[in-house]
Amino acid sequence: xxxxxxxxxxxxxxxxxxxxxxxxxxxxxxxxxxxxxxxxxxxxxxxxxxxxxxxxxxxxxxxxxxxxxxxxxxxxxxxxxxxxxxxxxxxxxxxxxxxxxxxxxxxxxxxxxxxxxxxxxxxxxxxxxxxxxxxxxxxxxxxxxxxxxxxxxxxxxxxxxxxxxxxxxxxxxxxxxxxxxxxxxxxxxxxxxxxxxxxxxxxxxxxxxxxxxxxxxxxxxxxxxxxxxxxxxxxxxxxxxxxxxxxxxxxxxxxxxxxxxxxxxxxxxxxxxxxxxxxxxxxxxxxxxxxxxxxxxxxxxxxxxxxxxxxxxxxxxxxxxxxxxxxxxxxxxxxxxxxxxxxxxxxxxxxxxxxxxxxxxxxxxxxxxxxxxxxxxxxxxxxxxxxxx
Length: 389
Prior knowledge:
By secondary structure, the protein is of the alpha/beta class. It has 13 helices and 13 strands. The active site is at residues 89, 345, 375.
């Protein structure tokens, strides 16, 4: 079977809700990362077979195949097709896996996987809310309601269920959130994000600037400050400080075949070693990365000790903490440059964003194998294992 390689992966620095990227159309965010891929890699971009773009909130400025619109707004040739997909938070991780599968099947040689999400301009849940307000229906059909009566499939409730099931405390969550900010700060100050972040030109009260630093990192974060944030639900443990930050951003990864490496003189950064996706309980939903990772390692013939770096999306602090506990994984190898609690979680853009960061972590530490997973709506989880070259 042909091998799929990752040549490059880039992302914008995260923008807070209403923050520095709020003035940028999501199509232009996508165009920025597409341009960076074209600029950084010396090959004929007309050879790109397809662009696969993850986006969760496909409404307003993110409709009409936002991935294709980003191609048209970029310096890529108009002849390149694009499709926009939704696997909730794992949308652009799925884009990577679809790209890898296309290459591994031998049907395509160069695929650009990507993700776009402006949570400022197209707020989370806004599309479903609009249709309900207009009396145009609810996402739950009669049959779905019969099977899951009165259940709204809340990720927040799933996170609280994980807290209880895995014996976590609010103190555990607060300490983890602090560590995310500290790691994000350390990675920023050490320059570890320089290779993965591409600049976006923005207008500010101080004039035209280039956005290059993740806006969500609290460089002065303290445990006392995090612990003092109000609990979101009475009797619960989760706060806004122990949840992922709403974020604007885009990201992309160039996935190619061995033939494309030869034909275009490209140098791979990593080989895609394993791809899989699983689904489980849609109620506790955020727990699925635990079982998905266990299954992926078994299918890959590996143990958790073989993995040098893990990126487990910090949708809520209980998710990576439960993942560590269930798998007996090494906390020091987890989200080493910080995670979504500090850096932000731009929904459909997070998959390729995490891949850019995972590659950077492996480069910085000299690690060989990296694993990426994230919880997704509906109780799903993708797992991608790469080998740094």
